[in-house]
Design goal:
Number of strands: 9
Bound molecules: pantoate
Oligomer: single chain
Number of helices: 10
Helix content: 25-40%
Distance between the termini: 31 Å
Largest sheet: 6 strands, parallel
Length: 292
């Protein structure tokens, strides 16, 4: 594999800055590895739209809660590097925990409001870890644009907020969720599902589609749509929802009406696996979010 590997922040920054001095544009795709089609679609967009495409592979410990799946999270660096290169990546940044969080590390990015709802309620501290590492990664790989998947909808919203609030000057580009043929959103955590859970996991997609159908039919009451989502999930006794909601695409506030700004969101536990998914009423990319 001829994909260039950046092992230290200095190494990454030096090469990225040199490319930029040559007049090349640099795009960045932060990941935690275990790459699937969703990640590869981000990389392909990045490689098409920018002169150089860099990805990071780093399982960031600060975004996992004490009882979460940090240890179990799939790690397959060599295979990931091959996939990334085939998708058009020029370089990968794969730092160690010691480099990212050396002893004495003391600085975190805290965002109020939108980090405290939905995922934030159920995974306290999660977005503090995500925003901290994304800020750090963007300091290591100072790209012009950064790519994120719509699958982690709330993450895209709070990252946009951070980038604006901290004047980070990077353009955030969101790409549509990539799904299995039966509708299940691609996720590294799908690896944890056994055959029965894999079948049961389709209830997320069924619940989301139910909302979209109501919207398409002109039924605009969000409360009824939320109730219908819960009823779809209840048909699978093993599925235990953490939350089921319909929120505004920019503010994450609960909406009363289904409009093109509404996004249906949910998190569901199946055995030990926690899956999230979402569906914007406006289509894959909510208004104002289309990439350039
Ligand atoms: O979406 C992810 O994989 C992670 O949250 C990210 C953005 C790479 C930060 O660790």
């Amino acid at each position: 594999v001829s994909l260039e590997r950046f092992l230290t922040p200095e190494n990454a920054r030096t090469v990225v800055r040199a490319w930029q001095r040559e007049g090349l544009t640099v795009g960045f795709v932060p990941t935690m590895g275990a790459l699937h089609e969703g990640h590869l679609s981000l990389l392909r967009a990045c490689a098409t739209e920018c002169d150089r495409a860099v990805l990071s592979i780093y399982v960031n410990p600060t975004q996992f809660g004490p009882n979460e799946d940090l240890e179990a999270y799939p790690r397959r660096l060599d295979e990931d590097c091959e996939l990334a290169e085939r998708a058009g990546a020029n370089a990968v940044f794969c730092p160690t925990d010691k480099l990212m969080y050396p002893s004495g590390y003391a600085t975190f990015v805290d965002q109020t409001g939108m980090t405290e709802v939905l995922e934030g309620l159920h995974r306290p501290g999660h977005f503090r870890g995500v925003l901290t590492v994304v800020c750090k990664l963007l300091n290591c790989v100072p790209a012009e644009c950064a790519y994120f998947g719509q699958k982690d909808f709330q993450q895209t919203v709070v990252i946009r907020r951070m980038v604006a609030d901290l004047n980070m000057g990077v353009e955030v580009r969101v790409q549509p969720t990539v799904r299995e043929p039966d509708g299940l959103a691609m996720s590294s955590r799908n690896d944890y599902l056994d055959a029965d859970q894999r079948r049961d996991a389709l209830c997320l997609w069924r619940a989301l589609q139910n909302v979209k159908k109501r919207y398409a039919a002109g039924e605009n009451a969000a409360a009824a749509a939320r109730q219908a989502m819960r009823e779809v999930l209840a048909q699978v006794p093993q599925a235990s929802p953490d939350y089921v909601d319909i929120v505004d695409c920019d503010t994450l506030e609960r909406v009363d009406e289904l409009t093109e700004r509404a996004v249906a969101v949910l998190a569901v536990r199946l055995g030990g696996t926690r899956l999230i998914d979402n569906l914007p009423m406006a289509g894959d990319l909510p208004p104002g979010r289309a990439k350039n």
